[in-house]
Amino acid sequence: MNLVRDSLQQAPDPLDHIKINNMAISDLAFELKNAKLEIPEWRHSIFLDENDPDESVESVINYILVGNSINFQFRDYESGEKFRSEYNGQTWTGAFGMWACLKRACDNGIPITNGEYLQSLSQSDVENIFHTSSGPDIPLLNERVKILNQIGEILVNKYDGNFSSVVSGAASYLYHDGNGLLEILNEDFPPYRDCATIATEHGDREIHFLKRSQLAIAVLYGRFHESNKFMIHDPMEFTVFSDYNIPNILRYYDILEYDRSLTEKIDSGEFIEECSQMELELRIATIRAADRLLLKLNEYHEDQITAPQLDWELFQKRDSVDTKPHKSITTNY
Ligand SMILES: Nc1nc2c(c(CN[C@H]3C=C[C@H](O)[C@@H]3O)cn2[C@@H]2O[C@H](COP(=O)(O)O)[C@@H](O)[C@H]2O)c(=O)[nH]1
Question: How far is CA 11 from CA 193, 200, 299, in A?
Answer without folding.
Answer: 18, 7, 27
